[in-house]
Hints:
By secondary structure, the chain is of the alpha/beta class. It is built from 18 helices and 23 strands. The two termini are 37 Å apart. The N terminus is likely disordered. The strands form six sheets. It has a six-stranded mixed β-sheet with strand order 4-3-2-1-13-14, covered by helices on one side. 29% of the residues lie in helices and 20% in strands.
Amino acid sequence: MSRREFAQLLGLAGAAGLLPAQGFAAAKQITDPYEVENFGNVRLLHMTDCHAQLLPIYFREPNVNLGIGSALGKPPHLVGDKLLQHFGINPNTLEAHAFSCLNYEEAAAKYGKVGGFAHIKTLVERLRESYGREKTLLLDGGDTWQGSGTAYKTRGMDMVQATNALGVDIMTGHWEFTYEQAEILENIKAFNGEFLAQNVFVTEDALFEGADEYIFSEDSGHVFKPYTIKEIGGARIAIIGQAFPRTKIANPARFIPDWTFDIYDDRLQEQVDHIRANEKVDAVVVISHNGMDVDIAMANRVSGVDVILGGHTHDGMPAPTLVKNNGGTTLVCNVGSNGKFVGVMDLDVREGKVQGYRYRLLPVFSELIPADPAMAALINDIRAPYLPWLTEQLAPADELMFRRGNFNGTFDQLICDALRKVNDAQVSLSPGFRWGTTVLKGQMVTMEHVLDQTCLTYPETYVREMKGSELKLILEDVADNLFNPEPYLQSGGDMVRVGGFDYVCDPTQDIGNRISEMTLDNGEKIDANKSYKVSGWATVGARSEGADIWDVVAEYLRDRKVASIDKLNTPKLKNVDGNPGIMDYPA
């Protein structure tokens, strides 16, 4: 791998200001692979959705990210060569590997792992020092405290320590809210930066019972500070926090009974108007965990925001989406997941407004960026008490094990197969989470890999009878969350993974009509009125009583002695021919 090749990678999205994009080929190339040419007077560094991955990992980008209706053919709903063509990225290059799943195994063997907090630390320090530390902010979009064995054991405090060491200035949240309320507040108290959320409010009952002891404002009802003002580079920058609005729907409400969540774009507009009128700011930035489609829709409806630095949907987009609204243009960015990328938004802020910008999305290739010694030592200390648990070798991978994609991935199938086998079920269901690392063929699957896919705070499994009509209802409900043409009615996950049966899906239909022809693996049609033995995990309502999912998967792998799948239960798709959000999908 040449210095020139990596320099090209670091130069992605180098067009400045509001000039028409000329493609990555026109971006200025630099001689130092770690040097990013400075622009403007304010640098915003952005990371999100690391899901507690402290070490470098493999992470395969999706081969299915369907855009339906008005989202058809638009970022982030582009995959493979269609994504490369849209952003002007040459195939069979380092940057092609960073942003797509093309030739994934071959490229992963060539370029190595990505992310890792010790490597991110080195990159962040370089980006801050080269620009002027006093002119930079590091923003974290959330999904930071969950997704690993150490985060589970420490209740997220390991990631608070790591982000403190990294120097995160501001963050918002989502999976942060899957700990108990008291634990969340303790973590935020230990966090050195500011935790912002303009769209999280306290319930009236909780306020009456004494929640005023911890909430940010009794008058407004905000649980957390909604925004902050930072003076950097001679400019006043407002940062507003937008936490995941569907937290109490997508995750257990029982963990956070006193708080309410929603998009609240009307209140966001009020915040922006207030800030513009009273705080004498030069720019307004939203650090968001809405998901990219929701951010684009929100940017259409809310004016006065210069930049939305978004997360939740794990979309690594090499360039911003420019959204025109009544107040001008809002730049919407999303920087992927698992510590794979760091976004760099340089702003030229003069005369009370943003005059221009330059944006780069930098993949963190851990073999090219040396580890920061102090961060590496901290990570070793965090992991040390749990190493016997994390490093247990379970079975070698007989094929590439991955999750990311709208429908079933091979690691998801492994989880579904384990649920069926260990719990003697006909059918299994597994949530369509987008977090989870990749295991290469021939690599040993450890308990840590299993935890990367399953480690949440409600991991209990269940076994119960369900009618065929109930199974269809579940699939229809999740499909509507994924393919509803109204972005505000989406929650950002992928389709529920299934084991033991296949089905037909037409994403272009309305709810109730997307799912058909549900068929067991033995060829028997699923009867709406017949009951089936179903096993699953991660119940959002009442707590289940079964074993933790990672123990079920580990038991399955120890017995099977190889990580492989016999059949991938993927739906047959209708009306998606020519959709640029799909490639290499089995019929």
